[in-house]
Design brief:
There is one protein chain. With 407 residues, the protein is α+β, with helices and mostly antiparallel strands. It has three domains: 193 residues, Tetratricopeptide repeat domain (Serine Threonine Protein Phosphatase 5, Tetratricopeptide repeat, Alpha Horseshoe), CATH 1.25.40; 126 residues, Winged helix-like DNA-binding domain superfamily/Winged helix DNA-binding domain (Arc Repressor Mutant, subunit A, Orthogonal Bundle); 57 residues, Winged helix-like DNA-binding domain superfamily/Winged helix DNA-binding domain (Arc Repressor Mutant, subunit A, Orthogonal Bundle). 56% of the residues lie in helices and 11% in strands. The chain contains 18 helices and eleven strands. A six-stranded mixed sheet has the order 2-1-9-3-4-5. Strands 6-8-7 form a three-stranded antiparallel sheet. Strands 10-11 form a two-stranded antiparallel ribbon. A hairpin with a 6-residue loop joins strand 10 and strand 11. It starts with a helix and ends in a 21-residue tail after the last strand. The relative contact order is 0.08.
Amino acid sequence: MDQLITVAARALAAGDPLGALNRVALRDDAPALALRGIAMAQLGDLVRAKALLQRATRAFGSKEAVARARCHVAQAEIALVSRDLGWAAKALSTAGATLEAHGDRVNAAHARYLEVRLLLLIGRLDEAERRLADLDPALLPPTLRTAHELVVAGIAIRRLRTKAARAALVRAKRTAHAARISTLTAEVESACFSLNTPAARLIASGGERVLVLKEVEALLASKTFVVDACRHTVHHANKVVSLAKRPVLFALARALGEAWPGDVPRDTLVARAFESKFVNEWYRVRLRVEIGRLRRMLRTLANVNATKQGFALAPRGARAVAVLAPPVDGEHARVLAFLADGESWSSSALALALRASQRTVQRALDSLAAAGKVQWFGHGRARRWMALPLPGFATTLLLPAPFPESL
């Protein structure tokens, strides 16, 4: 490797992409193409970066396994940032194994962290924790130690363990400062900001207010009977009943929770659960059936009593009932939650993250676009969707758990 390549690589490692480009911008050999691609990625031109890295991969040839593996890892990171989640995860795993086998432990660890970040993004928290436990950041450079702590914090935030998340972010600040890379420091500061940003709405006793993550954690640990509309679960006394795959039952539970201690008329429940403007005998029969199913699901936590006008929730041993609602409610709120990170998403990536069919996600995106809530650019398979971040809100609570089958 010649001197210019070495200096450019050091500039990239120090977070100076312009310094790297000054040295290799006019070169088309394989190492220079790879460095140019990484520099363009750091500058935000992901399309150009991807093209350069693909050229570099071809230029290195089959005999330069380590260099090709590094290019694959860089392409995977670009795919992750651009929310191209259909990028072959197997290729990233293979690249990491190749780097490990050839003694490039730093880039191999970087590949593993990318795999964990992907798992975290799509909500596979248990697997992300298992993969993270196999990684020891002690001997890694500050940049990767910061990445490690950010992933630890991300998992803790999704698990609503704010104390652990805050401790991880303090460590991340320390290692980011040691790395002396401004973009890395900004990423840590953004993660810290989410801990103190309203993350959900509390609906109780006819009133409503916003909660930060710490308050959400305290609410779920209290003796309050909580209908969690962010995760589609019901909590009480350390017991959790998931209704994520039962959207009708959850709609009934939420309506009853919002009305507590009062009851909800039957016609209102029909409209909330079945989204019907017309109530007939068939819907009333179906309502009785679904109420019976809800009683069985909540039998250890609460009862659902019939009243003269409708039904009322009667929690066992709870003095208060609250509904934990997303920052922005309404149809397709889960799609908006992912788009609110400010990145551009493909419909296939959203389908993977939401565990829904691509056609279902496409219909949701079309509806949101017609309402002026999202925008798209590109055509065909290159089309990407974006939305402005929700002002003043964190969307963490909307992302980690399995979602109902219908959006």
